């Protein structure tokens, strides 16, 4: 038996469904009360074109070979989001979250759209920059298809970042591909809780596997969210991490360390850092570097003259 009585042998999606993992749908959540305008923010993408955050995310999804995209929005936001995506808007299905009842509730709102199929899940206020030829979404989708189970993207993160992310605990099962068997999931854990329940053998001291902002999930997650919603009062929020913690008990569930970086546009200086990351990964990298050097040199000269 695994820690806390969890079963080491978990059932795979293929065993449950009798067919390979075919991921043709994606869900982007963008209905958060304080994040609704973030997907509309404009940035210069790696190709040098100005785009809304939402459009860049949609292009990330399409690049992973997924054509059907559901966007969970607050009532009344459809037109603004449709305009932000331009000609790609016809690839989107808008799903309303009538009341802001949490991230898990936003995901559950897309249950009719995903039906009985696995799906890629992303958040509308994160952008991703890959450090290899494949995009971050491509890395994750390929891992899920290969292993035929739910896979969450993770990134080793220092302890000070725990208040901002969900985190997983488990064991390394494939060193070459940085794959972990998930045994525990906690939402924004305290350092004490993380040290007690989320230590991963081999991880650098003071670092934990925090969520990257994208997952490939099986239909079981929707069933678990429905079960958990029935146990909540009308004013309680339904979050995703408890459902993923339960998923780890029921099915084979992996975490993939992504080769790349996530950028949250909603945090302090988030837009600036995201823009800088996109610029330095884009075709105008040399121009941007030259401008940065000029800016820093000018600032240093000005301070020296005081």
Structure description:
With 306 residues, the protein is of the alpha/beta class. Helix content is 34%, strand content 26%. The chain contains 11 helices and 13 strands. Strands 8-11-9-10-12 form a 5-stranded mixed beta barrel. It has a two-stranded antiparallel ribbon with strand order 2-3. Strand 4, helix 3 and strand 5 form a beta-alpha-beta unit. Helix 8 (220-230) packs across helix 9. The protein is globular.
Task: Give the helices and strands as they follow along the chain.
Answer: HEEEHEHEHHEEHEEEHEHHEEHH
Tell me the span between the first and last alpha carbons: 67 Å
Question: Which ranges are low-confidence, i.e. pLDDT below 50, for 5 or more consecutive residues?
Answer: 1-8
How many DSSP-defined strands?
13
Biggest pleated-sheet summary: 5 strands, mixed, barrel
Percent of residues in beta strands?
A: 25-35%
Q: Which whole number gives the mean pLDDT? A: 92
Tell the overall outline: globular
Question: Secondary-structure blueprint of this entry?
Answer:
Layout: H1 13-17, E1 25-29, E2 42-44, E3 50-52, H2 53-63, E4 68-73, H3 78-85, E5 92-96, H4 103-108, H5 111-114, E6 119-123, E7 126-130, H6 136-147, E8 150-158, E9 166-174, E10 179-187, H7 191-197, E11 207-217, H8 220-230, H9 241-250, E12 253-257, E13 260-264, H10 270-280, H11 285-304
Parallel strand pairs: 1-4, 1-6, 4-5, 8-12
Antiparallel strand pairs: 2-3, 6-11, 7-13, 8-11, 9-10, 9-11, 10-12
Helix pairs in contact: 8-9
